Amino acid sequence: MAIKVTVWNEGRHDKTNDAVKALYPNGMHNFIKDFLSTDENLIVRTATLDGPDLLTDELLNDTDVLLWWGHMAHHLVPDELVEKIRIRVMVDKMGFIPLHSAHKSKPFQAIVGSTGDLVWSDNRMEIVWNLLPSHPIAEGIPEYFHLEKEEVYGEPFMIPQPDELVFTSWFDDGHIFRSGLCYYRGMGKVFYFQPGHETNPIFHNEYVQKIIRNAIYWAAPANTPVPRPTCPRVYSIVEELKK
Amino acid sequence: MAIKVTVWNEGRHDKTNDAVKALYPNGMHNFIKDFLSTDENLIVRTATLDGPDLLTDELLNDTDVLLWWGHMAHHLVPDELVEKIRIRVMVDKMGFIPLHSAHKSKPFQAIVGSTGDLVWSDNRMEIVWNLLPSHPIAEGIPEYFHLEKEEVYGEPFMIPQPDELVFTSWFDDGHIFRSGLCYYRGMGKVFYFQPGHETNPIFHNEYVQKIIRNAIYWAAPANTPVPRPTCPRVYSIVEELKK
Amino acid sequence: MAIKVTVWNEGRHDKTNDAVKALYPNGMHNFIKDFLSTDENLIVRTATLDGPDLLTDELLNDTDVLLWWGHMAHHLVPDELVEKIRIRVMVDKMGFIPLHSAHKSKPFQAIVGSTGDLVWSDNRMEIVWNLLPSHPIAEGIPEYFHLEKEEVYGEPFMIPQPDELVFTSWFDDGHIFRSGLCYYRGMGKVFYFQPGHETNPIFHNEYVQKIIRNAIYWAAPANTPVPRPTCPRVYSIVEELKK
Amino acid sequence: MAIKVTVWNEGRHDKTNDAVKALYPNGMHNFIKDFLSTDENLIVRTATLDGPDLLTDELLNDTDVLLWWGHMAHHLVPDELVEKIRIRVMVDKMGFIPLHSAHKSKPFQAIVGSTGDLVWSDNRMEIVWNLLPSHPIAEGIPEYFHLEKEEVYGEPFMIPQPDELVFTSWFDDGHIFRSGLCYYRGMGKVFYFQPGHETNPIFHNEYVQKIIRNAIYWAAPANTPVPRPTCPRVYSIVEELKK
């Protein structure tokens, strides 16, 4: 069954920064949509902070997995939308894939339970190490791959210990960073992936593309008969089973 | 060195419900303060939703470990206070011990990353099982202890998998519940403990008292030279080490 | 692609105990093989301690997922075979699904890192609770299901904290037990499932069958280009990337 | 109460390798014993593979925390001793601190549930990063510290995901390695620490010494009334509580 993916991108750098425009002429969101769309099993839509395509209730409620890229305008994402996304993940099983600078986004913080604090620096060479080759998100990924130039993110990264730590990265200036993190959150699943600075061709990288695609399949809503959580009052199971 | 504990209690049931007043004449917060104060190493203050003692900035900033009991008035806790508590835990190392119905409190949800959803029912007998006897919070606790009557909380409990699952409870109506949960959250630590319904003498129980006290020691701010997270820009460690 | 499953059963109770023979006329291994074989994507073979079908090197090396049921003859499993199974899981990606009394088997202990100690008692009613509805092993499983009669296993269960705790069980005598456990072990994956006492019709239960089948898919060898671990001496990645 | 520590060192390099003899004139075990003994709360003994001081049953049974350094003679450690150590940890609460090349020791493999496989290389500069500043083993440790020269250990490290990942290291040749790992194993606790190649002055480093000392306190046997696991048959708790 097809998985409905929405790629949300703040979309501001894409319009103002020449380096970004050169790499992603139609915006990062459309670039990601394009490579994902080579998979016929994925139905991909996009939305941005300023539109014209917005993350409306209708689109959000029709989304199985939400990808999120934001950087300079986290504060402009309305609190009401953040709460809807949180409920959609934790209660309605939606998958959530925050990318790169989304570590400081409101949805990431609220859903994961983190301030997203880390240290950061200028572009350096990055080596992404595969710590859990048996994990579905690591499917088809070698022991390591490198990115010529990527913005340094460094520890301590103030995150909860991930349920599964899939990738950890090395930067040539001495920093390291837990870069591929799986979290179970309520009825939904979250995968954070660190590479993705807007002025580097990160989303062009074949392994980054593969990982994002693997993550969508991992995070897709589970096929479960367990009902939507509503904190209900219940009755004795023992009595029920005696009938 | 003394640990400064603040016991925050919504405090409404304590004033209006006769069963609660009989068990906790000066409120649950003062009862907890009293048994904790037998430990000379703990400095215990209290605060409630309506006062007169409030969780002021001054008190919050002078708190090492915050206990939290709330039930019918979660929504009345101001969002600004919730954010201050969140930062105090994740950035300033404060320990946080949400008790019982605090699973639906705003601070619990924001800090842990959960809606706190579960199922619930009337009073039944509860057996609390010790799953991790080697854990400091289980110090002095036997394989199990029971509570004659406690409000049933049941799974699925929509929490992140705890870093350490210390206790899990059995209820005589067929329900179970992960009842003692440790979480590392940023620079701070959280321990959620389920027993504590206001009309049952739960806080009178010797094991419950011991667990709460163990948890305070576990959750107390770490002695660490790592600076307060501020998401700073940093420079090459390799270059720095060459000097 | 088809998954090759081998069901290993000690096979002694099946030959000597009338209650077991009534439930499983051709042995538990063949009963499990039969229900699994309704899935065309599974190629299922069996082996027992005494034969005629044995877990030869040839069969073991051609096994993607090994199910293991043992009880009274753990000590008769040769240490050499245990080591081969351990390597096959941790180095060669084989999935391992120990069932019920296999908690005391040599492979379980060596692979998981546990003595398998627990407490146990006579048959009681069991309710299996689904703690992680979003997990693939919980696919199609409701919030709970019950088993009329099953041998009680109780905590403390001396296991490592599972990577994913999928199920926990309630018994009507007051015991609880973490009954569905996922572990990542080297290049392989392990799922332990507690229900399965030989004189109860456990493997006839539709949910037990579904869980075992889900677990086979979860534990099947990952599709990974990461080579077989050999603890090799390696060289500078930085130098390699400069070429 | 004093903690009884035994430092076990294979002790072969110490006798044959001049570089090691220069750094550790009385062997690594006595060097570690000396710095630990500055803490009056620790009673430290030593034992080696070849003696004269051996890890006798008497010494092992009188050990609260066992440190283990081995490299070229893992195979010479008798299986019977390995089993005794395993039981002493998992059943009798002993703490176990495998150091450096002990990742390939028999006790590490049996207790943790791992082949200990990794990749390795020649000495490079190492930076040890502190991922969990709130953890007791990280007490007094800064965000990072460096070791001028240390044998490279690299991922993938075929270990179970640690219960707590305290440290991860960076090497200047591009490798990274999860270098400080906490595991709960039965009634006992394990902390693996990677730095410690025999021809480098690793144990002279103040932070390495601090971490080992912190780890001893963390891993020391818990103060618990839970009895020694014996896999006993038990009876109905519900019936017991009715009396």
What's the SSE blueprint?
Four copies of one chain form a homotetramer.
Chain A: E1 3-9, H1 13-16, H2 18-23, H3 28-36, E2 42-48, H4 57-61, E3 65-69, H5 79-90, E4 95-98, H6 106-113, E5 119-130, E6 144-154, E7 164-171, E8 176-185, E9 188-193, H7 206-219, H8 237-242
Task: Write a brief structural summary.
4 copies of one chain form a homotetramer. Chain A is of the alpha/beta class.
Give an account of the 3D structure:
The first copy, chain A, has 243 residues and is an alpha/beta fold. Chain A has one domain (3-242): Rossmann fold. Chain A has helices spanning 13-16, 18-23, 28-36, 57-61, 79-90, 106-113, 206-219, 237-242; strands at 3-9, 42-48, 65-69, 95-98, 119-130, 144-154, 164-171, 176-185, 188-193. Chain A has a 5-stranded antiparallel sheet. The model of chain A has no long low-confidence stretch (mean pLDDT 97). Chains in contact: A-B, A-C, A-D, B-C, B-D, C-D. At the A-B interface, α5, α6, β5, β8 and α8 of A face α5, α6, β5, β8 and α8 of B.
